[in-house]
Amino acid sequence: MNFFDKLHNNISQNQSLLFVGLDPNPEMMPAFYQSEDVITGLWNWLQFIISETSDFVCAYKPTLGFYEALGVPGLELLHKILAVVPKYIPIILDAKHSDLNTSTIFARTVFTEWQIDAITLSPYTGQDHVAPFLVYPDKAVFILCCTSNLGAKTLQHYPSNESPLYLQVVKESKNWGTPEQLGLEVGTTNPDILGFIRATAPERIIMVRSIWEEENNFSQILKVGLNSNGDGLLIPVPQDMLASPKLSEEIQSLRSQINHVRNEVISDGSTCSVWLPDVCLLNQHPQHDLILQLYDIGCIMFGNFVQASGAVFPYYIDLRKIISNPQIFNQVLSAYEEILINLRFDRLAGIPYGSLPTATGLALRLHCPMIFPRKEVKAHGTRKLIEGNFCPGETVVVIDDILISGKSVMEGAEKLKSAGLNVNDIVVLIDHEQGVQDRLIENGYQGHAVFTISEITNTLYLSGRINEEQFLAFSER
Ligand SMILES: O=P(O)(O)OC[C@H]1O[C@H](OP(=O)(O)OP(=O)(O)O)[C@H](O)[C@@H]1O
Ligand SMILES: O=C(O)c1cc(=O)[nH]c(=O)[nH]1
């Protein structure tokens, strides 16, 4: 089960958007737990917090820095804490890690060894830094977009209040991962800031921080931050409450107050127009999630692009990026597989270069031999036109990423046929439409595509990824 499913299960089971920080901060530890051995005191206190709150929270959030500050015993304490948190409650490690050199190894440690469900990250080192954390399909990251720290104001609001850096972080990080993989961390007491962020990222989970610094804003903060389903926010339990001997009672009372506001938001339905596109499941494309993920990793770009033919289209599809995201690559292979299982063939042939990784992945998955027609024949070595072994008379299915004019796949198929192979079917991820399928049929081939460009743009428009102008530019092509 992925992080967001686990989170949502817990939200509905415990009817709670509250999360609790599991921080061994000696300065906040109640006197009752003070002992000669500070680690023992902290361990007892944190166990008390877990036992009092596990039925009323949706997640726990240990802050790595507090554990590190206690040295080796602190890290041992972290492991003990991770072991006692009930398995069904997701754990978000607050690490704000931002070191590019160590991100791959740190992601592996946190997600596979420590079995943490999600992590907070700083955005400043960009997508390269976040990507190693996103290759774990069941895990998630929260990108720090904004803090309530006064000293950060000059940076966060740069260059102007109309176009502040923190909103740029929100817009940029939305391209790094899907809503199931990437949430936002927002520390603010200002409902306007949270409102701007919610409007920019209506589909994201927002983990709010510091909202209790101005208690009067509580209801307003929730109303601008919650989505029309009355969720989409993770809300911290105030730190002071964790020192109370009546923690369980207090947290239940806080949960009731929050749920009261959630019910008002649901019955009001005022944010419905923002959310309708993402929650409407009617007529949703079966590959809806895959389309959004391809868009989010930058495979589908809108703007004026010159194509290989010299024509200018209002978009460009670059599927060569898929290989850098194993989780999405895997879904792409599954989508091809659904088509291929209904076809009869002896071998797969990939069209170079873009589709060679895909054909290779499919060959491994389907246990089917692969060959490929070269783009250019070398003047040295074996000078082969087709690489890999085959027997004339065999049937080959051609794999490519996209059909624009159909020239590439048909040229590849002709090379295969000239070597005595049969080619009937051509399978691609994206069909550009505009008559390309008919062109294939005229030349004796049957084209199969996972989705068409129209299905992609409809999905992106309905889910709010592209605006009306981009959608219309496509429709009028
Ligand atoms: O239907 P068409 O008009 O032929 O266009 C589609 C082809 O264009 C792209 O390859 P490209 O030629 O850009 O080369 P690459 O795969 O080597 O990057 C794509 O991978 C398809 O093979
Ligand atoms: O050659 C093209 O026209 C082309 C190739 C490709 O991979 N994507 C695209 O949108 N156009």
TrEMBL record:
Native source species: Amazonocrinis nigriterrae CENA67
Quaternary assembly: Homodimer.
Keyword Lyase: yes
Protein name in the entry: Orotate phosphoribosyltransferase
Domain of life, source organism: Bacteria
Positions of 5-phospho-alpha-D-ribose 1-diphosphate binding: 374-375, 378, 380, 400-408
Record HAMAP family: PyrE
Gene name as annotated: pyrE
Keywords of this entry: Decarboxylase, Glycosyltransferase, Lyase, Magnesium, Pyrimidine biosynthesis, Transferase
